[in-house]
Amino acid sequence: MDGSAPGLGAADPQLQRFIEVETQKQRFQQLVHQMTELCWEKCMDKPGPKLDSRAETCFVNCVERFIDTSQFILNRLEQTQKSKSAFSESLSD
Amino acid sequence: MESGFGSDFGGCGGGKLDPGLIMEQRMTDKCFRKCIGKPGGALDNSEQKCIAMCMDRYMDAWNTVSRAYNSRLQRERANM
Predict the structure, then answer these.
(1) Rounded to whole angstroms, how far apart are CA atoms B3 and B77?
(2) Can you give the pTM of this predicted structure?
(3) Which one, of A28, A93, A40, lies nearest residue A67 by Cα?
(4) Which of A68, B6, B16, B31 is the Cys-Cys partner for B54 at CB 3.0 to 4.6 Å?
(5) Chain A residues inside the 8 Å CB shell of B72
(6) Is the sign of the CA dihedral A14, A15, A20, A21 positive or negative?
(7) Nearest by CB to B61, which of A44, A49, A64?
(8) Is the ipTM of this complex over 0.85?
């Protein structure tokens, strides 16, 4: 590549777009792995010949509640930071 | 593939990050926990059968989670 542009894909919006999409896919997969692992503990008893509908429902609910939890935490942290202006100072780490 | 990259983990069309390796590690962990009681001198038939079923169920679970997550993402996007 003979472009003098600094940074990946800075001169090529198509490449940049490709990188964005691939990064998103990766993030998606990582989360699926994480949620599958967590929800397996909550939803699976003894592995049977197929995934019964109760377990399947549990997995679906589990995903939704996981995302709800994540959003809840984000929102509350945001609120806490807004209401306490000294919040970042009170974090002694 | 803009409509969602949450498709089933069957043929693994976008295997750029080798999800197979992560999958193998998790399966080994989960299925060992579910299927092996007191470790004996070898894996007996029932343990092997359990592990095989466990692998398939883990795959099913992965696909279910993937679909559910994808749906949620699309719903969130629709609400923006």
Answers:
(1) 11
(2) 0.77
(3) A28
(4) B31
(5) 63-64, 67
(6) positive
(7) A44
(8) no
DSSP state of A7: S
Residues 6+ apart with CB under 8 A from B25: none
Which of residues 36 through 55 in chain B touch A, CB cutoff 8 A? Answer: 50, 53-54
Cα distance between residue B43 and residue B47, in whole Å:
6
Tokens of A78: 């945001």
Q: Are B7 and B13 in contact (CB under 8 A)?
A: yes
- Contact assessment for residue A69 and residue A63, using Cβ atoms and an 8 Å cutoff: no
Of A79, A8, A36, A49, the C-alpha closest to B63 is A36
pLDDT digits (tens, 9 = 90+) for A52-87: 999 999 999 999 999 999 999 999 999 998 888 665
Q: What is the mean pLDDT of chain A?
A: 87
The rounded Cα B24 to chain-centroid distance in angstroms is 9
Find the helix or strand (DSSP H, E) in which A76 lies. Answer: helix A53-83
**CB distance from B64 to chain A under 8 Å?**
yes
Q: Give Cα separations from A61 to B3, B5, B42, B69 (angstroms).
A: 22, 20, 38, 10
d(CA A27, CA A73): 19
